[in-house]
Design a protein that fits this description.
Order of helices and strands: EEHHEHHEEHHHEEHHEEEE
CATH superfamily of the largest domain: H-NOX domain
Helix content: 40-55%
CATH architecture of the largest domain: Alpha-Beta Complex
CATH class of the largest domain: Alpha Beta
Number of strands: 11
CATH topology of the largest domain: H-NOX domain
Distance between the termini: 5 Å
Shape: globular
Number of domains: 2
Radius of gyration: 21 Å
Strand content: 15-25%
Structural class: alpha+beta
Strand order of the largest sheet: 6-7-9-8
Length: 278
Amino acid sequence: MECTMERSRGETTPVTTGAGGLAGSSEVKGVVTQTQDPLKVAAVLGDPTRYRIYQYILQSERGSVTAQEIARRFGLHPNVARMHLTKLADIGLLTTRAEKTGRGGRPVHTYSPTGQAVSVTVPARDYRLLSDLLSEALAHMGEEALPVLTQAGRAYGRRMAQEALQTLTEDSPRPSPRQLLEATARRLGAHGVGVEVVTGSDGDVSLVFSNCGFQEIALRRPEYVCHLCQGMVQGVAEECLPAARVHAEASLPRGDRRCVYSVPTRVPARLGGQVWVD
């Protein structure tokens, strides 16, 4: 199975991250979100090793790590690894707990993501407040908002897939759908979203997200955010698989450990005047 595209000038979509705002905290369905001293956040996340450690933890299958594991993975002394983990916990990105090993001796401390986001913008911008207000506006629209969100997600997904395809076709003129999904996953990973492409026993693939890039709003309005995200995956799939219909198999905001979107790949597709089938 192959995927081809007509070479065209890529459209760049600006991606803005971060939230400013006044110091304080708020609670959204049991998850506390708070702003931090921007200098402290910048100092903690400005260390490249520490940032890579945090990204590694976000994508951990178990959802938690120990200082010993981090030390082995990154070639650090355990005390140095523990220092990095403690600093990440100090700004609210990690939580720690002591777990008994069952073999006696001192308990082992594990570190796991809190799900809380911290960010720095200069000058200050309160995008979190903006997203809260926009989600409230969507709530007033009710179900009428759902097709609009799906359409917006599909449009963004297609743009993201087109950009990924342009990169792929520089090395391979006829990349496969799986290669497209993997390239898209890498683009999402560059924005801090942990996502993996998994092939099932039936040959179809799934996009598995280990963390939600919109978690604070998703916990409040999962019906809207999940529609938007499914639309994004649908848009990516449609760039090579117009006949495919993406299905949501699991959802982090609804209590699952991962977000899982299945993408049927054993369907005919047409793109750039080319037709291919499995």
